[in-house]
Amino acid sequence: MKTVVVTDSTSYIPKHIRxxxxxxxxxxxxxxxxxxxxxxxDISASDFYDEVRNGQRLPTTTQxxxxxxxxxxxxxxxxxxxxxxxxxxxxxxxxxxxxxxxxDMLEGAKVYPYDSEISCMAQGFYVLAxxxxxxxxxxxxxxxxxLDDLKASMRAYFxxxxxxxxxxxxxxxxxxxxxxxxxxxxxxxxxxxxVIVPFEKIRTRxxxxxxxxxxxxxxxxxxxxxxATIIHANRVEEAASWKKELSALYxxxxxxxxxxxxxxxxxxxxxxxxxxxxxx
Length: 280
Fold this sequence. Notes:
The strands form three sheets. This protein has a six-stranded mixed beta sheet with strand order 10-9-8-13-11-12, sandwiched between helices. It has a four-stranded parallel beta sheet with strand order 2-1-6-7, sandwiched between helices. The protein is 43% helix and 27% strand. By secondary structure, it is α/β, with parallel strands linked by helices. The radius of gyration is 19 Å and the shape is globular. α3 (66-76) packs across α4 and α5 (120-135) packs antiparallel against α6 (140-153). The model has no long low-confidence stretch (mean pLDDT 92). The chain has two domains: 3-28 and 63-152, Rossmann fold (3-Layer(aba) Sandwich); 155-279, 2-Layer Sandwich (Hypothetical Protein Tm841, Chain: A,domain 3). It comes from Lederbergia wuyishanensis. Keywords: Lipid-binding.
């Protein structure tokens, strides 16, 4: 049985890795000043943050049309027997439901839509694992079992630097955002039951990042091999510095660096930092 993997752009897997592992990507889009840009195709993360910084209006985001799923699935069904389609949490986007709807209409290949219940490179961990297993000839049931195994140990926390994006996106009231900014509060967020919720409110950026380190330490101190990724919203140097620091503390953890692209960056804002990890 030949199996192929599909994901969406919010896994933020670099193009050269997607090509090497035969991962097919469907983009979500951002609308900036009336112009629609497909992330990872029409606009880069750094260009997006430049646009937002200089603009007056907060961008909006849109999920892929079902027709894009149908078109890709139909094309892939000519060559593959099974399609594993891994997407960002159904609690924050209708993208997964789009994959389910398109899968129901497909004749030929069997589509296995998979709700990562998360996003960004945490979602990417599932995609990379699935694509590697597919290249090694594993069947869909084996791959899905591995994804569920990863999900059991997946943890992710992220800190928001600028509360105005959460406020404008409807996740904070104006009063909460104002008070939070005055007190220099940097909320730590995480996913619970597929949606983003507050974990803790921390005063200052440095303390918030230290708290996320403590959460990693709870798992890393057990000595089991972990894979982890630092995710940043246009903070390349800070992410590299954090990676160097954490790699020295936890040599048994395989750290990489990823980023919050335009769609997720619309809601978190520039300066956000995250850390996610799971067992290898």
